[in-house]
Amino acid sequence: MKVSIFFNGTYPNSGAASSRVKNYSVGLAKSGAEVEIISSPLISTGYVMPRLERFLTPLKILPKVINKRNHADIVFSYGHSWLTIVVMRMCLLFSDSKIVLDVCEKPGSIYQSWFYELYLVKLFNLIGIKYISYKIADGFVVISKALELYVDRFKSQSAKILSIPILVDNRMYDNISISNL
């Protein structure tokens, strides 16, 4: 099985999301999958351009998804907007590839700028997530029972949910003992 993980952001980095994707890829590889991680980092600097670039992510990712549509059994989306997920689905329409979404937080719970805090923008995004992207996904990876129940309310009947608790890389504790603390 070939899995292409599309990571929204710079990969690798020191953040939790990057660590989670790394652990997913290691677990998939140990299960016999051929895994590739494709990141879409923001390249702009300043205040305005990175925000504009986020809106262009669906167009930026389009050729990458088209390139994978006949080569990946699973296209795994990590951290993408509902609009990017719609673009991914459109690229995969005439292929056997499945689209799987990572859900590691309740949609709408964290926003990074005043623009996303606007009521109409929040409403628009939540409708897009719950009633469009969740309906067109073939599967989900969630990190808790609460998120599994949440996703189950909005997914299509045929979509599968895999619950994997928050992943911790235990190697970071190898050289720690009580006497070191």
Q: Could you characterize the architecture of this molecule?
A:
This protein is an alpha/beta fold and 181 residues long. Helix content is 43%, strand content 17%. The chain contains seven helices and six strands. The protein has helices spanning 16-30, 48-55, 57-68, 82-91, 114-117, 119-136, 145-154, and strands at residues 2-7, 34-39, 74-78, 98-103, 139-142, 160-163. Strands 2-1-3-4-5-6 form a six-stranded parallel β-sheet, sandwiched between helices. Strand 1 (2-7), helix 1 (16-30) and strand 2 (34-39) form a beta-alpha-beta unit. Helix 4 packs parallel to helix 6. It starts with a strand and ends in an 18-residue tail after the last strand. The mean pLDDT is 83.
- N-to-C CA distance: 44 Å
Strand order of the largest sheet: 2-1-3-4-5-6
How large is the share of residues in beta strands? 15-25%
Low-confidence stretches: none
Number of strands: 6
Taking all residues together, what is the mean pLDDT? 83
Short overview:
The protein is α/β, with parallel strands linked by helices and 181 residues long. 43% of the residues lie in helices and 17% in strands. The chain has a six-stranded parallel sheet, sandwiched between helices.
Key features of this structure:
6-stranded parallel sheet, 7 helices, globular
Question: Topology of this protein?
Answer:
Elements: E1 2-7, H1 16-30, E2 34-39, H2 48-55, H3 57-68, E3 74-78, H4 82-91, E4 98-103, H5 114-117, H6 119-136, E5 139-142, H7 145-154, E6 160-163
Parallel strand pairs: 1-2, 1-3, 3-4, 4-5, 5-6
Helix pairs in contact: 3-4, 4-6
